[in-house]
Amino acid sequence: MNLLLVVLTLVALGFLYSARSSLQRHREALRRLGQSLARRQPFLGEDEPALLGLEFQQLCGTANDLVTGHNRLSQFSNNQLAQIDTTLGSLKEAVMILDEQNRIMLANGALHALFPRTRGVPQQRLELALDSRGFLEYVNAVRAGNAPTQQEVEFANGGASIWVEATGAQIPAIDQPSGSWSLFVLHDVTRQKKLEGLRRDFVANVSHELRTPLSVIKGYVETLVDGGRDMPVEDREKFLLTIQRHTERLNSLLEDLLTLSRLESTTPGLNSEKINLTALISSVVEDVSRRPAASGHSLKLTLEPGVGELAIDPLKITQVFENLIDNALKYSPRGSVIEVTAKVDAAGVQVCVRDNGPGIPAEDLLRIFERFYRVDKGRSREKGGTGLGLSIVKHIIQLHGGRVWVESELGKGAAFFFSLPRRME
């Protein structure tokens, strides 16, 4: 009896040991199978299936087939994405592809250049990469199938804006046969929008500037026509002088517009020649000092010995000096000193025209060279300015390969600088 009990105990212990070992093997095999699936690599164990039974062997075979098939499809998908990415990279237009969750699946270099925030973050959401409610609405319209063929969209870009013409279409999703992605082509039209704005402003400014003298001339002429015979001679002469003054202003405005138009054309026509800049500046200052506008002012000229000769268009550079000096004379009180200096710098020659006028507010400094821009509009018209002189100066200096800028503090006058290179590019 005792012997039978011992045998049964040993058999039970052997069974328990065998079952525990089998359970441990199953657990280890399942753990390795789970790791294999997580890594998307086939299950490599060859001895475990035979030891763990036919069912487990079939499970491992099925898992291996699934992993192998998934890897094949994933490689095919990656190859397709790589081909699409290569194709998009050669395009000059900004292109991106969105999935159904608005994640950016693909974007070419042109898009990254236009929107740097889309670079370096794989599959980031559109809302985080681009700031445009209008574009999000267009994306939804494309998905719904009721979007226009092309739509202008504005994107916020700090304090400025980026305008694009967007075109969108639905395409099959690469990773899901039943899904769909959205393809968008963005054509940057920011420059065109700015030019359109400048054109509108220019037309509005020209219309406004022309209306004033024309209205005065028209009113005075009508008065002379209706009652000129009965009008006292003194009044008639006063009317005629007013008409003459506004006619001259109108003529000056048209001349400046023509000058600016020629400077902004594709062939502005610079007639460059070797000119002694010292002699040119001295001649201009001497000529201006004799004009009635310079009465009561003093012009001080300071020229470094090394200024010498430059390859410039003498007529256009003369116009630059005359515009800057006339501007200084207009806005400086009587008895003021207008300083004209020229010195040699590393790039060529730097010229400065400094006045003792009211100065320019800081917020106007960056716009002072724009067409028709005036700090004090009423006072500028009273002085007879057209609002185009500084814009002409800027264009002439830029055509010579130089640059122009202004330094000023309110109430402390203004200093207008321009540089001329030794050799024009």
List the helices and strands and how they pair.
Elements: H1 2-38, H2 48-52, H3 54-89, E1 94-98, E2 104-107, H4 109-114, H5 126-129, H6 133-144, E3 151-157, E4 160-172, E5 180-188, H7 190-227, H8 233-263, E6 273-276, H9 277-289, E7 298-303, E8 309-312, H10 314-331, E9 337-344, E10 348-354, H11 377-382, H12 389-399, E11 404-408, E12 414-421
Parallel strand pairs: 7-9
Antiparallel strand pairs: 1-2, 1-5, 3-4, 4-5, 6-8, 9-10, 10-12, 11-12
Helix pairs in contact: 7-8, 8-12, 9-10, 10-12
Report on the structure:
By secondary structure, the protein is α+β, with helices and mostly antiparallel strands. The chain contains twelve helices and twelve strands. The chain folds into four domains: 2-77, no CATH class; 92-188, 2-Layer Sandwich (Beta-Lactamase), CATH 3.30.450.20; 195-263, Helix Hairpins; 273-421, 2-Layer Sandwich (Heat Shock Protein 90). Helix content is 51%, strand content 19%. A hairpin with a 2-residue loop joins β3 and β4. α9 crosses α10 (314-331) and α10 runs antiparallel to α12.
